[in-house]
């Protein structure tokens, strides 16, 4: 499956990849070397923990590299309709909320980044300022009005 990323999402993944390769990988190699000095590896918890962490780090490096190779990068277009990469201001129950519509790997609702694949993201795609979206939630329906699209 091809991931869709914004330029900000690409930058974030590249930074994570750099940290993993230049900082975390050397740290874990040193931890493994140090743990080996304790002798018998079959009962060496520090060694096994370090090897497990190394496997996680290497797996994450591969995952990020594959994502960056195959990702579809969206560029922000000046349009009045909501699409991935858009920044939107919504009005719900008299309160304004600002969200960015991003790919699923970048989603972070607490930071205002809504996945294009989420129910709200799907409902907003193609809408413009002045449009309303009625979304069914576990607690009932929620009415959002699109105030602005950037």
TrEMBL record:
<dbReference type="GO" id="GO:0003746">
    <property type="term" value="F:translation elongation factor activity"/>
</dbReference>
<dbReference type="Pfam" id="PF01272">
    <property type="entry name" value="GreA_GreB"/>
</dbReference>
<dbReference type="InterPro" id="IPR036953">
    <property type="entry name" value="GreA/GreB_C_sf"/>
</dbReference>
<keyword id="KW-0251">Elongation factor</keyword>
<dbReference type="InterPro" id="IPR018151">
    <property type="entry name" value="TF_GreA/GreB_CS"/>
</dbReference>
<dbReference type="InterPro" id="IPR001437">
    <property type="entry name" value="Tscrpt_elong_fac_GreA/B_C"/>
</dbReference>
<dbReference type="InterPro" id="IPR036805">
    <property type="entry name" value="Tscrpt_elong_fac_GreA/B_N_sf"/>
</dbReference>
<dbReference type="GO" id="GO:0006354">
    <property type="term" value="P:DNA-templated transcription elongation"/>
</dbReference>
<dbReference type="GO" id="GO:0070063">
    <property type="term" value="F:RNA polymerase binding"/>
</dbReference>
<dbReference type="InterPro" id="IPR022691">
    <property type="entry name" value="Tscrpt_elong_fac_GreA/B_N"/>
</dbReference>
<feature type="domain" description="Transcription elongation factor GreA/GreB C-terminal">
    <location>
        <begin position="79"/>
        <end position="149"/>
    </location>
</feature>
<dbReference type="InterPro" id="IPR023459">
    <property type="entry name" value="Tscrpt_elong_fac_GreA/B_fam"/>
</dbReference>
<comment type="function">
    <text>Necessary for efficient RNA polymerase transcription elongation past template-encoded arresting sites. The arresting sites in DNA have the property of trapping a certain fraction of elongating RNA polymerases that pass through, resulting in locked ternary complexes. Cleavage of the nascent transcript by cleavage factors such as GreA or GreB allows the resumption of elongation from the new 3'terminus. GreA releases sequences of 2 to 3 nucleotides.</text>
</comment>
<dbReference type="GO" id="GO:0003677">
    <property type="term" value="F:DNA binding"/>
</dbReference>
<feature type="domain" description="Transcription elongation factor GreA/GreB N-terminal">
    <location>
        <begin position="4"/>
        <end position="73"/>
    </location>
</feature>
<keyword id="KW-0805">Transcription regulation</keyword>
<dbReference type="InterPro" id="IPR006359">
    <property type="entry name" value="Tscrpt_elong_fac_GreA"/>
</dbReference>
<dbReference type="InterPro" id="IPR028624">
    <property type="entry name" value="Tscrpt_elong_fac_GreA/B"/>
</dbReference>
<protein>
    <recommendedName>
        <fullName>Transcription elongation factor GreA</fullName>
    </recommendedName>
</protein>
<dbReference type="Pfam" id="PF03449">
    <property type="entry name" value="GreA_GreB_N"/>
</dbReference>
<keyword id="KW-0238">DNA-binding</keyword>
<keyword id="KW-0804">Transcription</keyword>
<keyword id="KW-0648">Protein biosynthesis</keyword>
<comment type="similarity">
    <text>Belongs to the GreA/GreB family.</text>
</comment>
<dbReference type="GO" id="GO:0032784">
    <property type="term" value="P:regulation of DNA-templated transcription elongation"/>
</dbReference>
